[in-house]
Amino acid sequence: MHAHTASPGFTVADPAICRDFFVRHFDARVSFDAGCYINLEFGNKGSSLQFMQPQDQSTPPTAYAGVWLHFEVEDVDAEHARLAKEGLAVRMPLEDHPWGDRGFALAGPLDLTLYVFSPREPAAEFKGCYIA
C-alpha cells in the first residue's frame, strides 16, 4: 500500500479537552471539529492527531477503542480488494461516509484498528466541520 498520509487516532471520553490542550500547549490547528470527532494538525509537514468519543451501539461495529491508525490512499476500492484477498479481518465495511471519505476498517495487530480511506466531498451537514 502506498499511503499519502498515516496518522494515529485515540478514542477518548471528551475530544474537546484534547483539542484545547494541544491547541494551547502545542500550537495545534483544528482542521475538523464535529464535536464527537476532532482532527488536529501540527506544523506544516502533515502531522496530525485525531480524537473521537466512543461510538454508540447504533453505529457499525468499528471497534474504535484505544488506538487506531488512519491511512489515506489514492484508490480505496483497490486497497480494500487487495487486503480482503489477503484475509485481513474487516471491522467496518467499505462505504461512502457523509463526513467526507470512502473507507473501511480492518483489524490490525495488538487490537489496533486500521482505517483506510480516500477523501470525498462531504455531505452538507459536515461541510461546516471543516476549518480552513
Report on this structure.
- The chain is α+β, with helices and mostly antiparallel strands and 132 residues long.
- Helices cover 20% and strands 42% of the residues.
- Strand 2 and strand 3 (37-42) form a beta hairpin.
- The protein is globular.
Number of H/I helices: 3
How many angstroms separate the termini? Answer: 29 Å
CATH superfamily placement: 2,3-Dihydroxybiphenyl 1,2-Dioxygenase, domain 1
Q: Which CATH first-tier class would you pick? A: Alpha Beta
Task: Give the strand order, joined by hyphens, for the main sheet.
Answer: 2-3-4-1-5-8-7-6
Question: What coarse outline follows from CA principal-axis ratios?
Answer: globular
CATH architect. name: Roll
* Major sheet description: 8 strands, mixed
Instruction: Specify the structural class.
Output: alpha+beta
Low-pLDDT parts are: 58-62
Based on the model shown, name its key terms.
globular, 132 residues, 3 helices, 8 strands, 2,3-Dihydroxybiphenyl 1,2-Dioxygenase, domain 1
Characterize this entry briefly.
This protein is α+β, with helices and mostly antiparallel strands and 132 residues long. The protein is 20% helix and 42% strand. The chain is built from 3 helices and 8 strands; from the N terminus they run βαββββαβββα.
